[in-house]
């Protein structure tokens, strides 16, 4: 085998090293392509590859500037320039007279560009290797797509040190995904800290002592890693074809969205004996479900998200399934996380013990990482009962060696495999809707089939009852027609509210839209939010907030929220689309916010960038300013915190949840009410029997702003220095000592913008002044955040305590 590899390497070394030496078709300076004519592209001489525009996904209206296999029906894309910035209809790419290859939108705004003007380019060329190049008049390559790969490499292409491939997000979404193949001494596969561009620990590597220098994919279909002196270190993949046969195959190697690096071949002619389709020669790793991070197990799943179980399908691809009573967070993200669709066990409620929960047995199933307790030499039954009686335990894993591991929520690195000897006991709430004790998981592909079965049952019952019910319905209809107009129509409470122009839904409509309140987006003290799809022409995705029946003031909370939100209209406020007020059912229908809450993106490893955090602060300030100063009726939100700032698909921040808002009349500037809001964000005047004004929101915003710029919670116990536990006190101390770098931590972007960091810190300190009169208005906050006015030096925010 070693001799065979060295023989192939020797053959590779005599192959032409200059790809520009082959025949090509010039793309002259000044040439351009437009999205309105995708049949026009820049082909290679043989026509096997093309450079131009392709649709970015199924049914997408956007375009990728791409290279693809042009003779295949599938038009398989091997490279793209703008995977994370899709070009809209009307965009164009031009190789300009001055030598810039630039992609612009219909307004002339630059989407992507490569500038070789200073090097004196003479032309561009799409080569038969699949490489697009810019060259000078001597055919010297100035730039080539092979040096900036996306997720694919082709024969003739090499990966040098620090070169990487990044998977797509899904099979239909070409944007950067969760996995990376990187050459850095070792060739290794990593999970990404999505959505930021950083990696977790490797889950596969070549293990060659860090001496790897270059990865080659030669014309014979061999992919291998070699050292700087040319020594072969690792054979990655081989087509096992002779030289003549290899030339009859199209080949590519791709890091796919599921985290597997696959080597594919496709016959150029049907006579080769292979099916006329892409077939996989090698998958690395062979079974990704059995691979874990090589150092740490606390970083979440490899192939699947939190609370999701990985198993290999019959097509040798990983599949991710939610356990019993858990549902997928995003149906479009087949490898994503799951959430339980029942309330967690309440540690404060000891009256019912463990009677509300039961343990569901799952064979050949294990979860790796997230253990908080381990017991040796115990029985299965002991392990199960111990977890059942522990309110912190969500699952227990027991193996044949009689070890018991107790798990917290969320569950990490789950897998189900015949080789797995462990057994999982999953804690679920008892419910009459749980059918069958032998069900282990609900495959995501079967969700639609279950709905069809339910529909068939309903239809069958309807047919049996139809003959008698139809007569009664006909009589009722005749009665309505006869007496229509004689009596005033009874309106639901909010159809009668002046100025409210939102849709009223029936409970059945919302129950159907949420598929029986199946997919939970979040839960709070007063409500639970579910994802729903409206039964309209565009199948609009919305969020449905269901108020808990047990809340004593539920009616009042519902009235306040409908009154508040229905009268607002601002781009930085979550839009209320409708409501339901039917019997005991009170629900609100909002626009769906794709990216979730600020808390989800701020307090995790995958934090959002400094520049985006600054924009979130400005967006939130604008939303609050509208509530305080621009609404027809002034609104105090009363609960500003990261959980109530939601972000859409463009990461635009919008304020949500007006359920505890206190409305002020036009002639009223302050009010007295019971304490509202969340501990840690509540202004001090709530506790001092002082009048409550809009300045309580300014105080909460100040806390939020500190959390935004420092990327940490307002109270944190696990700190090296106890002086850092309370963020407001630590931030003020750092400001007095001018030690801003301590607050910025390892955020290089924030450190580089330290002057702006100091400015935002000063704004936050003004907002958290103990004396409400010293706090700025939200209008003043916006002006300082945007740089329109300078911010003055703030006083000690806690000095007011000594004088009240």
Automatic annotation (TrEMBL):
UniProt key word Acetylation: no
Organism: Capsicum annuum (Capsicum pepper)
Transmembrane segment boundaries: 457-481
UniProt membrane topology term: Single-pass type I membrane protein
Record domain Bulb-type lectin: where: 18-147
GO cellular component assignments: membrane
EC number assigned by the record: 2.7.11.1
Keyword DNA-binding assigned: no
UniProt protein name: Receptor-like serine/threonine-protein kinase
PROSITE patterns (alphabetical): BULB_LECTIN, PROTEIN_KINASE_ATP, PROTEIN_KINASE_DOM, PROTEIN_KINASE_ST
Listed CDD domains: B_lectin
Top class in the EC scheme: transferase
Subcellular location: Membrane
Location, primary (coarse class): membrane
Keyword tags: ATP-binding, Disulfide bond, EGF-like domain, Glycoprotein, Kinase, Lectin, Membrane, Nucleotide-binding, Receptor, Serine/threonine-protein kinase, Signal, Transferase, Transmembrane, Transmembrane helix
Residue span, Protein kinase domain: 515-799
Family named by the database record: Belongs to the protein kinase superfamily. Ser/Thr protein kinase family.
Reactions performed catalytically: L-threonyl-[protein] + ATP = O-phospho-L-threonyl-[protein] + ADP + H(+); L-seryl-[protein] + ATP = O-phospho-L-seryl-[protein] + ADP + H(+)
Signal peptide range in chain numbering: 1-21
Lineage: Eukaryota, Viridiplantae, Streptophyta, Embryophyta, Tracheophyta
